[in-house]
Amino acid sequence: MKRANSNLSSGNNNVSSSSSKPWFSSYQSGGYQPPVHYASDQTHTLQDTAKTYYQTDETANNVLQKMTIQRSQLQSAHGSVHEMQQATAAARRQIEELQRKNRQKKQRLYVMIAAVGLADLLLFFRMIQCRGGFFC
Q1: What is the maximum span of the chain, computed from C-alpha positions, in angstroms?
Q2: Cα separation of 70 and 81, whole Å?
Q3: Calpha distance 90→84 (Å, rounded)
């Protein structure tokens, strides 16, 4: 049995000669002490994280608010464009109607000019036949 103990103690290179405890025993037994500034560093990091979160949240809310305003502006502009298209279509119909009426008036005027011209021509020939008078 002594021989087995001597093999174990001589075969373990990880154990220091000054201590009989293994190298991990102080960490697992709760003997680990973090550096003094570790807690304040962590607190500062958490504060920075919270500050960044609130700034990001505020920026997101501002962007969302601006996008909502822009959406209403776009919807209003879309409505205005639709109204303008309707007004343009109505104006186009009115112009076409005016052009049609103008053509009809020109045609009537041409017919009147032709009728008056024909009457003039007939009266002129009548004057020639009657030697200057309308009645022969």
Answers
A1: 173
A2: 16
A3: 10
Question: Do 78 and 70 touch, CB atoms closer than 8 A?
Answer: no
Q: In three state form, how does the secondary structure of the chain look?
A: CHHHHHHHHHHCCCCCCCCCCCCCHHHHCCCCCCCCCHHHHHHHHHHHHHHHHHHHHHHHHHHHHHHHHHHHHHHHHHHHHHHHHHHHHHHHHHHHHHHHHHHHHHHHHHHHHHHHHHHHHHHHHHHHHCCCCCCC
Q: For each of the chain's 136 residues, which pLDDT tens digit applies?
A: 444 444 444 444 444 445 555 555 555 566 666 666 777 788 889 999 999 999 999 999 999 999 999 999 999 999 999 999 999 999 999 999 999 999 999 999 999 999 999 999 998 888 888 887 767 7
- Give this prediction's pTM: 0.45
Cα–Cα distance for residue pair 112/104, rounded to 1 Å: 12
